[in-house]
Amino acid sequence: MISDVRINGDRLWHSLMDMAQIGALSNGGCGRLTLTDDDQIARDLFTQWCEEAGCTVTFDRLGNMFARRPGRNPDLLPIALGSHLDTQPHGGKFDGVYGVLAGLEVVRSLNDHGIETDAAIEVVNWTNEEGARFAPAMLCSGVYSGLFDLEFALTRVDKDGLCLKEELDRIGYAGKEPCGAHDLGAFLEAHIEQGPVLERHDEIIGVVAGGQGQRWYDVVVLGCDAHSGSTPMSGRRDALIAAARIIAAVQTIALDHGPEGVGTVGELHVCPNSRNTIPGEVRFSIDFRHPDDNALSAMDEAIHAVADAERDAEVQLDMIWHNPPVHFDSRCVEAIETATRALGYPHRRMISGAGHDACQVARKVPTAMVFVPCKDGLSHNEAEWAEPDHLAAGCNVLFQAALTLSTHSALVPERPA
Amino acid sequence: MISDVRINGDRLWHSLMDMAQIGALSNGGCGRLTLTDDDQIARDLFTQWCEEAGCTVTFDRLGNMFARRPGRNPDLLPIALGSHLDTQPHGGKFDGVYGVLAGLEVVRSLNDHGIETDAAIEVVNWTNEEGARFAPAMLCSGVYSGLFDLEFALTRVDKDGLCLKEELDRIGYAGKEPCGAHDLGAFLEAHIEQGPVLERHDEIIGVVAGGQGQRWYDVVVLGCDAHSGSTPMSGRRDALIAAARIIAAVQTIALDHGPEGVGTVGELHVCPNSRNTIPGEVRFSIDFRHPDDNALSAMDEAIHAVADAERDAEVQLDMIWHNPPVHFDSRCVEAIETATRALGYPHRRMISGAGHDACQVARKVPTAMVFVPCKDGLSHNEAEWAEPDHLAAGCNVLFQAALTLSTHSALVPERPA
């Protein structure tokens, strides 16, 4: 018992390709870091498209954008569909962007067929999901959900010492609405899987029931700068040798908690970084993830033991972020699974390996996600790729689920009087 | 049978402290990279001091500077005393600078006592000894000695893409004299040991009979950028994990060839260097040194074996520089040892652990070095320190040796007719 309306896959694909021109890189990917000039251009284009689709676009103090297509009943909270438009430095065309433009395609398809919904439909673009420029990731959806303070977010600083507030003001996307004040009845996020599971099983839809937990660390290893030629190996305090041991341990600890556990050192800086000076200081990040919070705690204990055991250098290990595993709203997951079954797509229930804005929003708003496969499970990579048919299928699931939630008022809480 | 003249240790010390103001760092060291604005200021001050001491200052096409105090006999080749004025990014006050200003102090002391020498005395400042900005180290003394081509040196590029020739022109120290055309009868270099040996043995003079061999490598490790959360450990090609294994191997290989062998990874760059992306590319340097060229070859074979054995990533290992061990001129070493004995300083014969301009110049000109202790053997570090008395002692040895070489014409080849 679903609508026979189908979204326009070609229009969705062309919108994705048009958006990918902004911050395009030489190997087919996108480098559109949050709050850069390119992010501003992308936000302006998104605003233009939404307004052309009859939506009213607003944004809050952190630049989280909400494009509203009104519903019949103003007393119902809106059903939100979205993700993020920012990318990694060497990111792809689909991570985040797909969820935003799939939401827009749902609105465009509703317009094509003159469908009125009870609850309003809103398309959302969350600020700084990637965390590549301003750590941590999912920062502004986190503030929306009350996981971070506004002030904490506004004062995050990038590698060049620029803070989030300055950059938000600079590109003109600092709104007046308090972050979190914009009530939503439900939030649905469509996303590429960013992993190999669906592809391996020839399935095209992942019904996502939750997200794994994450712990992020900043590590500083302090040794002693010295001459690389005349300092005997015995007398050295080489910060990079000590760092290399810890990096190897990150892999070992993740493997010890496999197959779900993962551990990554993605960012590393050596000081003074001169080829004939023994490094006196190395700074790097650690990213641990696991669907089970107890396993994540064990990984935390293990890396602290490794840091404490280091003798050749001083190791400072600070956990800068802990995001426990999240379980999505059963009614929203149900709406997505029902739509997927009705549309006849091969699918599976799964837990998200990556963090997503949905994992933050779920702490405040009934939430679920739809995954589609990506080639070789590759993401955060210029070669990231998803098949147009799969993207269209995910968007059709989003359309049917949004229609269900927005037209069965029972599912949607009323706006507080 | 030595002169009873002694150099002025206070004047030497104050000159060192004055020079250390140029590019001074907050922790007491110097960051005066070659061919920067600070290097220009240091060269100008050195020129002013030499001219005030009655010297004529010239420089060749690579900015190698020669300050000449004439001798009685213009047919004799000059006796050169010097080192370098450039430093590491976080360098000290003495590495290199001491050898140049000790040479200047010898000239000033000769003037104080109205001593005429048969051969001229020249104070030399070699360009880009450190190699911290333009690899390899000892570049311009290397061209002087015919180890490198002029064109190779002029086209070296720094991290910002600036080439040595541009920067040399920019600071106004590109001369007309071909590099290597400036004939020298002998070259003596005074330097801090940059190692712990003299200090450990309570000796204040090292009579340096040669230098150890060096091999420098550039390494590129290629993996695959991927998402740090949703890429299972099994499917990863993490370039930093592979790099960490090679860095650990560099230490192991050096220890296997101990106690003389040393191995260092001083410079490392991660790409894309984002905390939630598995690194797809890591570039780093390797610096291997050993007094025995056969051992150095064995270390080379060992690191190639490690690179070839890597399975998780592609490893490109390129040796960019091989400097075999060098043996100094017996007459010059003798002159330094005789002076040291006559002055009654506790001393030892030794091999230099660090590379020095003298190791390059020795391939073309009769050469030797004199070492003085530095605190904890520490160098390439802001905390680098040498005792004023030790610096004065080394300078007195330099003075006596220079006097011997410049007044016993028999030791000095005549200028070709």
UniProtKB/TrEMBL annotation, chains A, B:
UniProt keywords (A-Z) are: Hydrolase, Plasmid
What family does the database annotate? Belongs to the peptidase M20 family.
- What's the protein called, per UniProt? Zn-dependent hydrolase
What lineage does the source organism belong to?
Bacteria, Pseudomonadati, Pseudomonadota, Alphaproteobacteria, Rhodobacterales
Q: Which residues form the Peptidase M20 dimerisation domain?
A: 213-310
A Pfam family matched in the record: M20_dimer
A GO molecular function term, named singly, is: hydrolase activity
Q: Does the keyword Protease apply?
A: no
**Highest taxon in the source lineage:** Bacteria
Reply yes or no: does the keyword Hydrolase apply. Answer: yes
